[in-house]
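// run 5 | inverse folding | seed 20
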């Protein structure tokens, strides 16, 4: 599945049809901030382009994080935010034919991956979590989103990050059952955590926070007791 024509249209609207391609959609050396630079002169243009890019993420998981970041500042875009948005467009110019591929697969298992930073937003110190879910060999769901509250530790950020894909996998299992699809054989989850915060199939590690202490137990129930 590809939205190459739609991507070309976005580049035309931005006046960047002949721009120089960029190898990556985001600069990982720094974080965007609400007070990073002077206000951008045409906020309406910024909002239109950022909104259009959101629809492109329907088939382009590779730009989900970058688009999520620029959309955080649609209410008051700065010059630096527009430069970040243009970097995404330059990346799209070089990857115009990219999309999501669906393959015939004999596998009928769900596998999800997730990760989260800790306090990555320089303005609010909220963490950003992302996940992707595979059904067999096919990527079927993905997301990148800033967490709604500040996490007191990296462990809490990881717990919050692992909750969403766990619920998404369970919803997919239920939907598959409702439409009469062959039952999903198994469901598992992988994550990146230096603190060993999540062990959904075994013992839960010592909790390092209070308000989110129920999340790992709910995740473990979803994994072991089929919700």
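// decoded
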């Amino acid at each position: 599945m590809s939205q190459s024509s739609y991507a070309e249209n976005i580049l035309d609207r931005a006046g960047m049809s002949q721009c120089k391609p960029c190898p990556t959609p985001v600069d990982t050396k720094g974080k965007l901030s609400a007070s990073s630079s002077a206000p951008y002169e045409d906020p309406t243009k910024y909002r239109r382009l950022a909104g259009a890019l959101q629809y492109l993420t329907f088939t382009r998981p590779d730009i989900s994080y970058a688009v999520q970041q620029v959309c955080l500042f649609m209410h008051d875009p700065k010059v630096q935010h527009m430069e970040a948005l243009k970097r995404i467009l330059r990346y799209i110019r070089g990857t115009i034919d990219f999309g999501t591929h669906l393959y015939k697969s004999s596998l009928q298992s769900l596998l999800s991956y997730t990760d989260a930073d800790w306090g990555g937003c320089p303005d609010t110190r909220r963490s950003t979590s992302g996940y992707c879910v595979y059904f067999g060999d096919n990527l079927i769901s993905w997301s990148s989103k800033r967490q709604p509250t500040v996490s007191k530790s990296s462990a809490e950020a990881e717990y919050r990050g692992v909750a969403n894909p766990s619920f998404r996998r369970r919803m997919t299992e239920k939907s598959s059952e409702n439409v009469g699809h062959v039952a999903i054989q198994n469901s598992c989850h992988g994550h990146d955590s230096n603190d060993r915060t999540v062990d959904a199939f075994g013992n839960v590690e010592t909790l390092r926070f209070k308000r989110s202490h129920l999340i790992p137990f709910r995740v473990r129930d979803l994994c072991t007791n089929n919700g």
